[in-house]
Structure prediction request, 734 residues.
Amino acid sequence: MPVNVNEKEKVFLLNTPKTTYAIGVVDDGFLAHIYYGKRLNTSDIRYLLKEEDPPYIPEKNKREENAFLDQLPMEYPETGMGDYRESAFCVRNMEGFRASELKYDRYEILKGKPGLEGLPATWGSDEECTTLNIFCVDTLLDLEVCLRYTVFEQLDAVTRSVIVKNNGHQSVYLEKVFSACLDMEDRDFEMIGLFGSWARERHLQRRPLGYGRQNISSFKGESSHQEHPFAALVTSDTTQEAGEVYAMNFVYSGNFMAQAEKSQFDSVRLTMGIHPEGFTWKLDPGKYFTAPEVVMVYSSEGLGKMTRTFHDLYRDHLIRSPYLHRERPILINNWEATYFDFDEKKLIDIAREASQLGIEMLVMDDGWFGHRSSDDSSLGDWQVNEEKLKGGLHHLVEEVKKTGMKFGIWFEPEMISPDSDLFKKHPDWAIQIPGRHITQSRAQYVLDLSRQEVVDAVYKMMENVLKSADISYVKWDMNRQLTTMGSVCLPPDRQGELFHRYMLGVYQMQERLVREFPDLLLENCSGGGARFDPGMLYYSPQIWCSDDTDAIERLKIQEGTALVYPLSCMGAHVSVCPNHTVGRNTPFETRGNVAMAGTFGYELDITKLSEEEKEMVRHQTASYHRYHKLIAEGDYYRLCSFSETGEEDCWMTVSKDKCWALVSYVCVLAKPNAKSRFLRLKGLEPDRKYEVRGKIYTGNILMNAGIKIESRQGDFRSEQIEINEPDGEPVCDG
Ligand code: DGJ
Prediction:
């Protein structure tokens, strides 16, 4: 049973194939967390609640109520009653008092998984998922909080969200509504997060968990380059194959907080939700507030198993695009080729040359609209600049199509340039605090997407462009953080809603786009990878990983990204050398091998490549067609890591039927006088025979002894090694 309720003991168990998550109701009605870990075979676990433990039991010792709350593993802790660890919920009433006492009321079990209104969320059929709603109430405020859990029956993942309903006669102010809390005893945990900067996104960081609070967050209005809405607690012995992992990932693209806190009693609380800074939501009588979803994954088989669970979950239950399981067109984007300096002739030249080499789509990046010839104007004026693109968009697209290529286009719909017709007409449409100057970033302001008329007007402009020509792809960019948060339309006591209302506006626009243009391939982007998160994946099957296209920098970025997200969604392109971001020279082959670990494409002036390089493009596009399905749909294993060793990097993907695999190896730093090295493969069938470099081996020997890495010579050298069944052509059945 995926959801098992022991009515007598007041215990709820959520069972996935290999995990159990358990909640209990303590005697005075609070909801307590009992267990999360390897699957249990009984529901007789109330003793784990340790209600009898000192310090004190509230029912029997009212004098020490708060001491009790401060040590009980709580399922959804709240502010104001004596649990001094980080709370998950904080409400203020109209008189200004901040406290609640959420006590268990009832539960319901639903087949399937209800959606979350206006928000991205994982999905699944009645056969695949079961949902448990636990309702708690605060009788004084007449507030009902529904803790929602969905169990995926074939995957070791549980999703959570929270829906608050005001059943009272007075409004309340929600000051914090986290989506998940997990209390556990410390087991010498370490915390893993993904950190970085522009051009350095999602580098892995692992650090011991000490007493106090360790926090990962963003209140920039986006999930951000710097910190990432993912956190994992791992036991100190955890490797790719062994050890325990408790991971949370937030299906949201705006402000977030993920925090681990170790208390005086050596308990650990992991929380995740919308960042409380800058958040207050006025909840009127009869209204609901829905907190975004958190995905929880537990693995007792190390980080690799956690990764593969996230990949399967996101491929099968989050991304909705018809392109998800389809081969993506190999695209060429003109950004690094031309920046703003292009016209229709240049684009057609690129398309003509690219189509000869196996590339399938031209993407026209920033600079085609308004009077934009640098980054300081025209955002919001989504009309084609016909001085630049003579003959207009329709003509350009038709010319590109004549070369056999599809056409894609760039937008930055959330922004408005001070130098734009839109701003002249609607200066109040920018997010701003009246009387204060509006902070510029990249010479632009942010549109107030909490206003429906703004959403409608910008959407309409995009729609007109998309209907004016045969456009197959949109790159949706977002190039600045949010500041001077104010909406001229919200009343004073609702200004704290702006960050979240902004995200709801973005989601609404993307939802409209994918519904109205169901065959459109949407790629999200945010100044590189500042919004690479599960929220965006709900709308677009691929996201631009980083503006850093250097193959060596990409190793760390792609390792961190692939820790959670499938390779099929990582935007990765081959660019020129010296690389525009770091000035490094790397072999063309390595640039191709690294970009092939994502949605493959090019970002260079193909008309300027040498004949030898063009031949390599032909070879790479053919390899992409051969391996695409294996890379996009297969199981991902990390064999070694440049970020750990500083020397080499290696990953592999194995088809689900274990018949076929591809190993990608990069020797980052050559090593003098090095002996040959054997690399142990993973994920194969031990008793099956495999062919590698023309010789036959068993899976057993390949995984226990390994394959030989021929040479450690040549910085940045790389190779792809195919592992397949001895007979016949491999077929990846996904
Ligand atoms: C940032 C993106 O990451 C780049 O790929 C490019 O589209 C620029 N914006 C254009 O302004």
About this structure: Residues 335, 365-366, 410, 477, 479, 525, 527-528, 544, 547 surround DGJ (CB under 6 Å). The chain has three domains: 3-317, 331-629, 639-724.
